[in-house]
Amino acid sequence: MSKKTKASWAEPYKIKMVELLKMPTISQRKKMIIEAGYNTFLLKSKDVYIDLLTDSGTSAMSDRQWAGLMLGDEAYAGSENYYNLEKSVKKYYGYKYIIPTHQGRGAENILSKILIKKGDIIPGNMYFTTTRLHQELAGGTFIDVIIDEAHDSKSLHPFKGNIDLKKVEALISKYGKDKIPYICVATTVNMAGGQPISLENLKQLRTLTKKNNIKIILDMTRIAENAYFIKLREKGYSKKSIASIVKEICDQTDGATMSAKKDALVNIGGFLAINDKELFEEASNLVVVYEGLHTYGGLAGRDMEAMAIGIQESVSDNHINARIGQVLYLGEKLKEAGIPIVEPIGGHGIFLDAKRFLPHIKQDHYPAQTLAAEIYIDSGVRTMERGIVSAGRNSKTGKNYYPELELVRLTIPRRVYTQAHMDVVAESIIKVYKRKEKIKGLKMTYEPKYLRFFQAKFEKL
Ligand code: F0G
Question: Measured in angstroms, how far is the CA atom of residue 222 from the centroid of ligand 1?
């Protein structure tokens, strides 16, 4: 016995209530995917078996969060739950001021309107769909400053979410610091496959931005997952708690937008956090136009209470170990079977590399969109395209973006599925991989103007 066996881990919770799964038959699935125009966003949930479309708003809340719903203070102004949320944000993230919003993009809209002027440049560590669109709608241009390794699905760089400081310096000299209101830094970069940024890199960026009087705004949507990778991979952090690493990340920044539907374990909610009082006042004023009064921002009191509790639960070491442990379990299974996936395995899901999975399908024929549809047909498992369809078109030239990464995301909701579900998912992917040569691409038959991946329709070639 030379091989050291790793101790098993288990979920740090037990199940109190269950929701029965739907199990559509193969003939139903074939019919449904055609009706949905080969777009998994257009499937009905009742036709899905295991739903890995997203980890957004799909988490299971704890009994404490459900109890929190009953403590909803549904006052129009000054709800008790708003103050509990404010306390939680201050305690765990350290930001001075907070404005609740209905979800992450609500915060992105307000932030972009306050900080971006026409002609501004917003550097960021890879785009996110809604974030970039709000920057563009406010008159700005997003420019990617992530390290090159992030665009290579095979690179094993431990922090593929890092920012290339040379790219930032080049932008400052090209456009001038006054054209750059802030740098948008995402934790565990979604579109790169859930890849983290290191604290070392963030601190270097802080020094550079301080010198140039440029703000750092965090997209802190998956911050606890990022903290896990820092603890695991970055020198000096192995003995620190996830909570303290989360706080240290926030401390390097001037504010944040948050989609609480991910790490913060709620089904709806988000916020904008900021340290500058004047900006806070401006945002408090604007939020009443788009979301609701600044003490509820489009949420019910009970939603804010569940969020306040979820934030606390999300930074527990036990929680995050099991959460990412489950993602790793699925990823390792797929790797063992030779399935091409983005590595290192990220925080919120497994990303299949559709260019390597279906090398005979040209990017113009949507390999990732095709693969997501095939997986659904095979097993009723719903996944999502993150490739050319998601990337959309350049808003100025109208030309398609051709992203290096053409991926299918198997996003794991938090505290929802078991290890056995992961086995079923892996088996289905392996089955599809075995018949990959027979799979044909798609053509787009309907393209909406904004965020086309949500509603576009396709037909088989
Ligand atoms: N930022 C990141 C990194 C996200 O992943 C998302 C949402 C948002 C912002 C916007 O937040 O949905 O609450 O308005 N991502 C979801 C996903 C939709 O499936 O990855 P939202």
Answer: 9
> Tokens 């916020």 map to which residue?
271
Q: State how beta strands 215-219 and 182-186 pair.
A: parallel
Q: Is 114 helix (H, G, I), strand (E, B) or coil?
A: helix
Q: What is the CA radius of gyration of the chain?
A: 21
Residues framing ligand 1 (Cβ under 6 A): 54, 56, 103-105, 128, 130-131, 186, 190, 219, 221, 259, 261, 270
Q: How many Cβ atoms from other residues are within 10 Å of residue 373's Cβ?
A: 27
pLDDT tens, residue order, the chain (461 aa): 445 667 778 899 999 999 999 999 999 999 999 999 999 999 999 999 999 999 999 999 999 999 999 999 999 999 999 999 999 999 999 999 999 999 999 999 999 999 999 999 999 999 999 999 999 999 999 999 999 999 998 999 999 999 999 999 999 999 999 999 999 999 999 999 999 999 999 999 999 999 999 999 999 999 999 999 999 999 999 999 999 999 999 999 999 999 999 999 999 999 999 999 999 999 999 999 999 999 999 999 999 999 999 999 999 999 999 999 999 999 999 999 999 999 999 999 999 999 999 999 999 999 999 999 999 999 999 999 999 999 999 988 999 999 999 999 999 999 999 999 999 999 999 999 999 999 999 999 999 999 999 999 999 99
pTM of the model: 0.95
Domains of the chain: 26-55+317-460 (3.90.1150.10), 63-314 (3.40.640.10)
271 is catalytic: no
The alpha carbon of 27 and the centre of ligand 1 are apart by a number of angstroms equal to 33
Peptide bond into 344 cis (omega under 30): yes
Among 44, 76, 178, 445, which one carries the catalytic annotation? 76
Q: Which two tokens stand for residue 57?
A: 């708003």
